Amino acid sequence: MCDAKLIADRVVIKRHFEGAKHVKRTTAVPAQSSIATAFEKVKQSDDDKCKASEIKLAAFMAEHKISMRVMNHLVDLLPTMFPDSQIAKNMKMKRTKCQAIVNNILGESEKQDLCADLKEQKFSVMIDESTDIGAVKTMYVVVRYYCALKGQIVNRYWDLIQIHCEENSAPVATATAQHLFEAVIKSFEENTIPIENIIGF
User: Fold this and answer.
1) Which pLDDT tens digit goes with each residue over 137-193?
2) Using CA atoms, how far apart are residues 37 and 40, in angstroms rounded to an integer?
3) What's the pLDDT tens digit per position in 67-122?
4) CA quadruple 89, 90, 95, 101: dihedral sign
5) Do the strands 123-131 and 198-200 form a parallel or antiparallel pair, or are they unpaired?
6) Cβ atoms of 35 and 59 closer than 8 Å
7) Residue ranges per domain, the chain?
């Protein structure tokens, strides 16, 4: 406010505080809010509380591997169980919204946390090829590393890579060792994971 350079000494600061320049400048500026009021916790709106509840419920469904179809009935049951809860009444989450929250919010958040871990940790990679019900060849990638938060070695899902691509409507055989290697390395490079952190395969 005063644009003054002062020595960090109690006497100097007190003298400046009582000086004409400081008094003149502080009286010209309207009163500012105190530090206590500047950092008051912002109250959550009912809409924000409802969104937070939907995310927690979606996380619960995913963690315990409960079918998303249950949400079609559960969301209608909650207001009858908790008639005094405005959050339960405002919740509008059926199976498609629940699946979208798991994929686009929780999944992305977990991926970012895993990327942060892999940028700092040495890890090994495990892969396995499979064919899904649509006859699409895929490769499942799992990483194994020491998790400091859990204090143990963990296996975490990393990526599901399609290994056969179609060009000009004819399938191209791309399940060669070279292609599999390049697909795995590309998956890590796209997420800026240092390749030198891979210590096992």
Assistant:
1) 888 999 999 988 888 999 999 998 887 755 544 455 566 788 888 889 999 999 999
2) 5
3) 999 999 999 999 999 999 999 999 999 999 999 999 999 999 999 999 999 999 89
4) negative
5) parallel
6) no
7) 46-104, 121-200
Do the Cβ atoms of 102 and 58 come closer than 8 Å? Answer: yes
**In angstroms, rounded to a whole number, what is the distance separating the alpha carbons of residues 97 and 78?**
16
Give the Cα separation of 72 and 55 in Å (integer). Answer: 16
> Cα–Cα distances in Å, from 101 out to 15, 46, 157?
59, 19, 18
Beta strands in the chain (DSSP E): 123-131, 137-147, 152-162, 165-167, 170-172, 198-200
Where do we find the tokens 């059926």? 94
C-alpha to C-alpha distance for 130 and 139, rounded to whole angstroms: 6
Contact (Cβ atoms closer than 8 angstroms) between residue 102 and residue 61 = yes
Amino acid at 129: E
Q: Burial, 22: exposed, middle or buried (Cβ in 10 Å; 0-12, 13-18, 19+)?
A: middle
**Cβ density class 91-129: b for 16+ within 10 Å, e for less:** bebebebbeebbeeebeeeeeeebeebbeeeebebebee
Report how far apart, in Å, the C-alpha atoms of 143 and of each of 31, 93, 95, 127, 199 are: 56, 33, 30, 9, 11
